[in-house]
Structure formats: structure tokens, C-alpha cells
Amino acid sequence: MSEINSFHWSCKHTWKRSAKNTMWCLIGCAIGDFGTILFFQITKIPFPVLGIMTLAIINGLITSIILETIILMRQQFSLKEAFKVAIGMSFISMISMEVAMNATDYFLTGGAILTWWVVPIMLIVGFLTPWPYNYWRLKKFGEACH
């Protein structure tokens, strides 16, 4: 019972650290996600919107895992350990981030369309969605991706 009472949402240090972790995740997800959407937007390859958005989510997850693995390896993790941590601790964040970003794109533009005004909104929503989970995980378990 004391563990439940000791958890709180008011630690500025944890919010800052979890924001940093969330930002790295966002950068990784955005690279693959936006890159995929932009590819289809530029090439005009006829492909269903749902298909493009599914590929964007998958590619966002892949690029985020790659980026986080590289970051962890720079912190002296082995490749195997870094990959395991990147997948294990941040996968829920990545999935929620990707779904939130793509849902935002879909509701605002009809899906798979990058415009100057939708990208910042997608990034804000993508950041805010997993941030409380990342704070909770860091505060409760002392676990972070980086």
C-alpha cells in the first residue's frame, strides 16, 4: 500500500527526463512516418490511404527502434541489450504515438497528407499522448529508454 501512496505526478525532474525520452521517441517515429507519407505524396503512387497510413506506422516504429538502439549503444549498451531495451520499454509509447499522429492526420486532412499546418499538430499530439505513460514508467519503475 505504501508504494501506491508514494507515487505522485509532481516531480519536475521526472517530467523533464520523461519529456527528453518522449522527444527521442517522437523524432524516431516521425522520421519513418513522415518519410513514408511524403514518399507517397510526392510519387503519387496510387495506394489506399489506410495502406499508406499502416506503412507509415510500421516505418515509424522501425525508425524509432533503430534510433533508440543507436542512442543506447552510445551509452555503452551492447547491440543486443540496446535493441531489447528499445523494444521492451518504449514499444507501448511508440505505438500510442504513431496511432495518435496518424489519427490526427486522418481526422484533419483525410489521411496520408502532410501539409505545413498539420505536421506541427501531429507532432504535438504524438508527443503528448505517450508522455504521461513515460513519466509513470520512469517514476514507478525507474525505467527509461535513454
Topology summary:
Elements: H1 2-6, H2 12-43, H3 49-74, H4 79-109, H5 118-128, H6 131-141
Can you give a write-up of this model?
The protein has about 150 residues and is mainly α. It has one domain. It has helices spanning about 1-5, 10-45, 50-75, 80-110, 120-130, 130-140. Helix 3 (about 50-75) runs antiparallel to helix 4 (about 80-110).
Overall mean confidence score, pLDDT: 91
End-to-end C-alpha gap: 29 Å
Query: In this structure, how is the largest beta sheet organized?
Result: none
Kindly state the percentage of residues in helix.
over 70%
The multimeric state of the shown protein is: single chain
Number of helical segments?
6
Cα shape: globular
How many whole angstroms does the radius of gyration measure?
16 Å
Low-confidence stretches: none
Based on helices, strands and strand pairing, what is the structural class?
mainly alpha
Whole-number tally of structural domains: 1
* Total strand segments: 0
Care to give the gist of this entry?
With 146 residues, this protein is mainly α. Helices cover 79% and strands 0% of the residues.
List keywords for this structure.
79% helix, 146 residues, 6 helices, globular, mainly alpha
